[in-house]
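explain this chain.
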Amino acid sequence: MGQYKSYFKCISEQCNETFSLTDIVYRCPRCNNLLEVKHDINALKKTTADEWMHIFDDRYMRTRYPYGSGVWGKKEWVYPNISDENIVSIYEGGTNLFWAERFGDAIGLEDLWIKQCGNSHTGSFKDLGMTVLVSAVKQMISNGANIHAVICASTGDTSASVASYCAAAGISAVVLLPKNKVSTPQLIQPLANGAITLALDTDFDGCMGIISELSLNKNFYLANSVNPLRIEGQKTVSIETVQQDDWVVPDWIIVPSGNLGNVTAIGLGFKMMKMLGLIKSLPRIIAAQSANANPLYKSFRNQYKTFQPVEAQSTAATAIQIGNPVSYNRAFPILREFNGIVEQATEDELSHAAALADKHGMFCCPQTGVALACMIKLVNEDVISPKDKVIVLSTASGLKFPEFKVNYHEGQLNDVNPRLMQKPIELPGKIDNVLSAINKLL
């Protein structure tokens, strides 16, 4: 298949600066714009669309390391020049595309699917990007770079993924978390994996400000989604989702949206498939935000004429409680190109949507609750039609958010009416009492 090239390029159309993927650079030094990874599309086109589909299908979830990974099975489209021996993979990807038939029936959709990205090693979609980033760091170190640690700011899931992949690679990790604003399971993950874990008396945006200053020291390598290597791994979820449905493109794909790397990644994955002929059309993208952390929604409402960061308020969807998303300038052109929509969900709406999904067989994280709530709104407004094929990106396992689940069913969530609350029925330990209770409820 020949040699393929990939490199960093400034996203500004007025700037032609390019850099090697092994350069320690996150923004363009010339104009301070974000960077993106570019690929030699002409070289990739020498392999036909049918051949690419055969290659990807032949590798998918097999045992040949690292190509059985949902990410590294698409290596030529992600980071073609990395040495296989420097790839750090924990078999990320390959997550279930779940046909939510009963949930769809309940809300008026015939063709609803949930891409369950939380069925991953650390329980979130972040593993898709982190395998690429940590592998790149290992490649840099093997080339002689003096990197002491990989660093990140996090609302929980990124820190877990950084810590796990760095532990697998034998590379030190430093994570900054907002104190008392991540769940206990999210906090214990980096601790268990041996990362230096710092809980700061600030919010995510405050942590991000400090981590940005630390990243000026090239002994520290930045793992937040401002780094386009993360996005390269995350874009494979688009490819895998279409691959799992025999290369059929959905009408809509709905994405919980905080720092906006995922919106960008989803779009880039679909665009690459279309450029290389694997698909003929693009889906519409819906970016779903919490109403308590909604800068993208506000920008969308004025046709992206302006963008103003907000001070993110408390939300159960802590992973997207971000008021100043670093990937805004990457994301809004994607949304325009995909005829996208930005919607928001209140605490009551997201909690009810998650509980309704759980009642139909899922166990949703609150971020997925945001996406589902926005979907329900758009179905009720006839924006999404009953026969449309809809895929919701579920970003994390509900098991990472036990407090959210417990507090809902105990009626302890602020601004939430828990109308699907469930509590255990306490009875004497006698068969007659058990049968009587069951018969009353069936």
User: Anything to note?
Assistant: The longest strand covers residues 284-290.
